[in-house]
Amino acid sequence: MRASASRDYYRVLGVGREADEKAIKTAFRRLARKYHPDVNPGDKEAERKFKEISEAYEVLRDPKKRQQYDQFGHLGAGWQHAGAGAPGGWSGAGVGTDFDFGGFRGGLGDLFEEMLGGRGVGSFTQARPRRGRDVRGEIEMTFDDAFNGVTREVAVSVGQTCAICQGQGIVGQGSVCAQCGGAGQVERLKRLQVRIPPGVRTGSRIRVAGQGEAGPSGQRGDLFLIAKVAPHPLFKRQGDDLQVEVPVTYTEAALGAELDVPTMNGRVKMKLPAGASSGQRLRLAGRGMPHMRGGGRGDLYVQIKITVPKNLSQEERDLIARLGQMRKEDLRANLRA
Q1: Contacts for 168-171 with beta carbons within 8 Å, 24 or more apart?
Q2: Where in the sequence is the domain holding 156, given as residue range(s)?
């Protein structure tokens, strides 16, 4: 195969002849994103441009090919024969009007792996199957469901859904559906049993493979359910750790006590050390939320809240006053200016 004898590869990429390797690669990436067949399905002109810029990049990125091109280039017929005996067997293979990515390894193929997120690049002589679009929807659940995991039924519209159906928990895209009537309504709803793993949090994505929209080749995209977890009346979540506030009396804080502490699995006994302060946190290992990946669970932190008694009797007031006289403490000594 012979390369074009008149095409100015520098002009094709929009760079000057003094451009270095980085500038050439940057120019190619910008143009490739614009004209790639995946971005312009069925556009023959875009495909032609894409072949052209790919041909230019394949030549200019290689120092030996670029040197030969600079020497013979579009100046005459010498360019067409310059690579016949070139190192590596370059004789125009992989460039020109029949440009094909199929033969490249470690060059454009690697670059497109990077640009297209690992999808790679196939030959232009064979159309690649195109998968359908992914579908996204929100799934609400209680805090207990997020802790234990749950199997939920999800209704997915085959075509489009309207705002009414979205309010009923039906996942889909568009403006009209069978529930609402109107032209272009969908024929049916597909109901799926989806397992929600323990440990999900608001914003977690649950992927259901192959349940998105169908593509031109019949290959379906995926369904992604975005979790929305309701808050718990007692526990606050911090990552996979939980925190619960437990009130204690002045006497329990001063002398120590054994407390009944709530957890997501029921109440447990916890020892409160003597002299505990209000706001102090005590850790119960492995009593938090399950880890979604890797197994195990977070921790539960018990935050102590000392309650001050109100409506004291005269006898109680006398006892507390007597205690204060016995202690002779000045807790604010360090606060003096």
Answers
A1: 169/139, 169/140, 170/137, 171/135, 171/136, 171/137, 171/223, 171/225
A2: 135-229
